[in-house]
């Protein structure tokens, strides 16, 4: 018997959690009281980029939705915040990860304001060949403008030690 309970052979018909991770340690049973610690939010956009632009009228649907999800996690931590965005199926050599962190007084607001500013600046510098009237080509936006990917991960930090630096977010 180990800390995780008695060792048993793996049954292929067992649920995923049991089959691959074994049992949870006795000290982490469902009876433990929940504590307020860090919060995470994960968002995966499943439809094509153009769908969100047509339906919601914005190229930043994912970023806007992530902001709402992070605001709901505000009580989980106010010492820092970070978001990351991954663009899937990008051409080789194209930047496909964007990340922004903050330990400001209001880190969620700060992170999203900076992400929106970066995106707006890049969108404002679109080359003439990418512009079509008052809008910019969707493919160019997806490949060049930060935080326009399909996968978002956000984190709010509840500091449990005295080191409240940007590296900890």
Automatic annotation (TrEMBL):
This is Glutamine amidotransferase type-2 domain-containing protein. PROSITE patterns: GATASE_TYPE_2. Residues 38-169 form the Glutamine amidotransferase type-2 domain. It comes from Alexandrium andersonii.
């Amino acid at each position: 018997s180990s800390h995780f309970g008695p060792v048993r052979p793996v049954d292929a018909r067992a649920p995923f959690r049991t089959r691959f991770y074994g049992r949870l340690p006795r000290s982490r049973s469902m009876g433990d009281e929940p504590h307020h610690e860090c919060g995470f939010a994960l968002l995966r956009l499943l439809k094509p980029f153009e769908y969100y632009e047509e339906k919601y009228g914005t190229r930043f649907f994912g970023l806007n939705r992530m902001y709402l999800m992070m605001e709901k996690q505000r009580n989980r931590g106010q010492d820092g915040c970070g978001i990351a965005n991954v663009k899937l199926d990008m051409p080789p050599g194209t930047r496909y990860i964007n990340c922004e962190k903050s330990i400001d007084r209001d880190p969620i607001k700060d992170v999203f304001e900076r992400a929106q500013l970066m995106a707006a600046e890049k969108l404002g510098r679109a080359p003439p060949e990418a512009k079509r009237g008052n809008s910019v080509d969707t493919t160019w936006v997806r490949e060049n403008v930060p935080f326009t990917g399909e996968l978002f991960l956000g984190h709010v930090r509840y500091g449990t030690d005295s080191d409240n630096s940007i590296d900890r977010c």
